């Protein structure tokens, strides 16, 4: 019987509403009070049964629930033969629960949208080279899969042939498509907007990045914050207090209707639902943007952060050397082409940066090359002698250097650059400065963090102090410390926490795991690596620095929303109880209507978070 009532609860709600309408029609159109009373009695019974069943289930586990208060209110109205009151109370309570269920489902839309991004089947290559459609559960690591234009990528893997562009918004929160070619990684749940590719499966099912994101968001939405746990404890004791108050008022006043009305009006429904629905909506909004909060407690604590510490490499900077400046002397264009020809033969990190910078230049054939230890490379390209290296290499080959060239080299070095010098036929043609560049827009994002109330912005790095100071000065950071080991950074976190500061640490989730774990809030910059997800409290899936102020703004908005809902819920209960005790116009039906309306108000207020965009977002 219990299962049947729960399964058909929505139908019983509709039946109750229809019977109430018919009862009023019988009274106003046909002037039949007997028919009205009969229909209202039927509506009370049909609506009251599922509420009473829920109350009984709660009592079996020794919980005095809101359903019990409403059940007693309906029984009380029966006893005093106020069938109109009992029917309306039952309907409003059931209808309010229906709206709550629907709107809560809406706030969990992030999970639904994420799950729908994963295809149910995939095209797997067979032994004879053809492709067959198989269920996702049948895929294994190493399988070769075909993805066509508009198709959903079913696994984490690597492109082995073909090309196209993929929309990775489900992973990173960015809608701009990325080009994919052989050797590039792809992720489950992303969409191939155009092109055709074959991919080799590396992670399948729950092991994919996408699978872990879904699991993380589900766990986060189901977790409870300290505020939610406090309210749960409050409502556990508050409900019996309301029941006791109704009994006392009934005994003193000898007014059963007044006692029953207090039972209805004292229900803390909006208070119980207000906090979790805010947190669920905030977590859902973040998930759509590639910002993963590990639970509602994280949101509350993050909103109070006053100190943020940053690693430099890969956080404030891009994490790989890039060509920052090029000084040209003489035939610079030819020298650049010869430089690219030589560097394409090298596996040095600086060589990779240079070939990436000149990716549009066509390389010439290198006829011969020799590495001079501690100096660089000497090569023959298209009949030209090419020297690529440092000042020591130039000195060894007696390359003349003018005062202007020396001044340029000093300027590049003082700016924190590594120098690469290029001479052709013993004439210096190029001086390149390479450094790990600061991410675009970081200065503006740091300013936004200050506007959001963050008082201290610290840079902790393993680089030399001069480089660290240059970065800190350029970005306007509060403090900067260099030449630190990972354990030194964690000690800095501990020291500031001991001073009473709420500390967030931003790192890449790998080298800085001690600090991420130690901080009140660990924020991992990255593309969803296993280490980043497991170590930190907040994961920024696409590693975009502007997600940090966005995530803090969202956390603060979610906490504000939660406080608003608590205020609304308590205010409504207080006003209703005062009204029923101090006025003559308040009755059970009006009170129940206002009570259910307050539940809907807090849910709708929380749903605003689903569309929340901070002023930092363009």
From TrEMBL:
Superkingdom to which the source organism belongs: Bacteria
GO molecular function ontology, one term from the record: metal ion binding
Entry-linked SUPFAM superfamilies: Calcium ATPase, transduction domain A, Calcium ATPase, transmembrane domain M, HAD-like
Keyword line: ATP-binding, Cell membrane, Membrane, Metal-binding, Nucleotide-binding, Translocase, Transmembrane, Transmembrane helix
Gene Ontology CC: plasma membrane
Subcellular location field: Cell membrane
Pfam families, per the entry: E1-E2_ATPase (PF00122), Hydrolase (PF00702)
InterPro entries in the record: ATPase_P-typ_cyto_dom_N, ATPase_P-typ_P_site, ATPase_P-typ_TM_dom_sf, ATPase_P-typ_transduc_dom_A_sf, ATPase_P-type_domA, Cation_Transport_ATPase_IB, HAD-like_sf, HAD_sf
Topology term for the membrane: Multi-pass membrane protein
P-type ATPase A domain: residues covered: 116-218
Record-annotated membrane-spanning stretches: 12-30, 36-56, 234-252, 258-284, 566-586, 592-611
Keyword Nucleotide-binding: yes
Family, similarity comment: Belongs to the cation transport ATPase (P-type) (TC 3.A.3) family. Type IB subfamily.
PANTHER family, sorted: CADMIUM/ZINC-TRANSPORTING ATPASE HMA2-RELATED, CADMIUM_ZINC-TRANSPORTING ATPASE HMA4-RELATED
UniProt protein name: Haloacid dehalogenase
Natural source organism: Galliscardovia ingluviei
Gene for this chain: zntA
